Amino acid sequence: CTGNGICKCRVCECFPNFTGSACDCSLDTTPCMASNGQICNGRGTCECGTCNCTDPKFQGPTCEMCQTCLGVCAEHKDCVQCRAFGKGEKKETCSEECMHFNMTLVESRDKLPQPGQPDPLSHCKEKDVDDCWFYFTYSVNSNGEAIVHVVK
């Protein structure tokens, strides 16, 4: 019974939190917990303590790895560009599409938030429509609000 139950008359009687004919299936979902607090990142099911990713783009032990997904920087580049500088691909639709984050303009790159704060932080360097680099950080606070800091 894999050490997780007692064999009685050739049938395993599983201890709590275990199931299966050989008690080899853990009902503990802790190993399936993604960094965002969701079971299998909301993209799979937890079976016997292992994620079975149902969204084919996502893989890994907690369905958090996505090779084909845009990074945070590329994903938010157009919205940051129109909000901060009034230009870019989303210039015309900025007020409809790009109001989902709080934005703060800072004077220089050394005024951007630095790693070491409690919220996960992405430092971004992207090119704008004029082929110039612009810099921003993207983080999500404990209330689930997106916070963006952009260098003027």
TrEMBL record:
Record carries keyword Transmembrane helix: yes
One Pfam family matching this protein: EGF_2
GO cellular component: cell surface; focal adhesion; integrin complex; synapse
Alphabetic keyword roster: Disulfide bond, EGF-like domain, Glycoprotein, Membrane, Repeat, Signal, Transmembrane, Transmembrane helix
Gene3D superfamilies xref list: 4.10.1240.30, Laminin
Chain ranges of the Integrin beta subunit tail domain: 73-152
Entry GO MF terms: C-X3-C chemokine binding; collagen binding involved in cell-matrix adhesion; fibronectin binding; integrin binding; laminin binding; protein kinase binding
InterPro entries: EGF_extracell, Integrin_bsu, Integrin_bsu_tail, Integrin_bsu_tail_dom_sf, Integrin_I-EGF_CS
GO biological process: cell adhesion mediated by integrin; cell migration; cell-cell adhesion; integrin-mediated signaling pathway
Presence of keyword Ubl conjugation: no
The protein's name: ITB1 protein
Phylogenetic classification of the source organism: Eukaryota, Metazoa, Chordata, Craniata, Vertebrata
